[in-house]
Every structure is written in C-alpha cells, then in structure tokens.
Design goal:
The protein is α+β, with helices and mostly antiparallel strands. It has two domains: about 100 residues, no CATH class; about 70 residues, no CATH class. It has a three-stranded antiparallel β-sheet with strand order 1-5-4.
Length: about 180
C-alpha cells in the first residue's frame, strides 16, 4: 500500500540519513525526475534528490539472468528485422520511379532510405523490447523501484508516493514546519 505525502516548495527534507527503501543509513542520493506537459505548451519538470543505500541502489539497477537473455535476444531479433526491412526497401526502390527524387536511378539515395528505415525499425523494436523486459525483473528490484516516486506536482507543491508507511511518517515529521506537511 502506498502512502502519499505532499510538501510545499522545491526542497524536501528527508529523515536524517535513512534509505528510503530499507531505512538503513543512506550513502548516496538518486535524482528522481517527473515531467508534465503544460496546456500552454512547453514542459514543466520536477527533480527530487532521494537518499538510498548502496544495496538498494544496486537492487534498482539489478537484472535477472532471464531479463538479460530476453534483452539480448530481442536486440538481435530487432537488428535482424531492421536489416531485412532496410534491404527490402533498397531492393524494391530500384524498380520504382519516384519522380524528381530519382530513387530508382541512384543507389546512394536507395541505400540511405534503406538505412534510415532500418534505424527507425530497430529503435522502435528496441524500445518495445526494453519495456517488455521489465516483466522479468525480480521482486526485490520491483520493490526498490517502487520505494518512492513523484506522484504529482505543480508550481508550489510536490506529492511523493512512498511504499513504506514508516518512512512516509518520518518524512512528514521531517517536513513538519512546512505548511502542507
């Protein structure tokens, strides 16, 4: 169960040296970022530096062997499919007469079109595979990733979401002088 805590301003006071995931002494800080698109155009970003211990930081970045195998296989398959698409476009544009561009006559432009399309296909498939690979994370990694997040923010306030109720209570006490704490 998550616990949301709202504080005023852009600087939060975290409990004295406690890791946000395990409450052991924190040795490093991790910067969390959340970006919102404004209605008037442009973006609004909020960054919060959160204390973590080395063990929990390692957990956040840890990958299971199954996740690593999936990512490698997905990258190889994405590259192969991208090369097939690029090669197909290179071969098929030779027979096409595409007006003023002259793709059928000039091998350079055909090759460029093939390489660009291969790059786009690979990029999209790679991003998709990385998101699917998250399904293979360990329970400890998922818990460390969910320890804290920026739930919402506006110009004056920030709402953090904590997985641990005890840490949320300590955070509230540390920000007691805050009007919204």
């Amino acid at each position: 169960m998550s616990h949301k805590v709202r504080y005023y301003g852009d600087q939060a006071t975290f409990p004295a040296g406690a890791c946000v995931h395990c409450l052991r002494p924190a040795t490093q800080e991790l910067e969390l970022t959340r970006v919102k698109q404004r209605l008037s155009g442009g973006y609004l970003a909020r960054k919060v530096r959160v204390p973590f211990c080395e063990v929990c930081l390692a957990l956040r970045e840890a990958k299971t062997p199954r996740q690593v195998r999936f990512e490698r296989a997905a990258a190889a398959h994405s590259l192969l499919l991208a090369l097939v698409v690029g090669g197909y476009l290179y071969v098929t544009t030779a027979s096409l007469n595409l007006g003023p561009w002259g793709l059928g006559e000039n091998g350079f432009w055909r090759a460029l079109l093939g390489l660009l399309s291969a790059q786009v296909v690979f990029g999209l498939l790679y991003l998709l595979a990385r998101s699917w690979a998250r399904h293979f994370q360990s329970a400890d990694t998922r818990a460390a990733l969910r320890a804290v997040s920026i739930a919402d923010f506006d110009w004056e306030t920030t709402t953090l979401e904590f997985a641990d109720g005890e840490y949320a209570e300590r955070f509230t006490q540390a920000n007691q002088g805050n009007p919204l704490g």
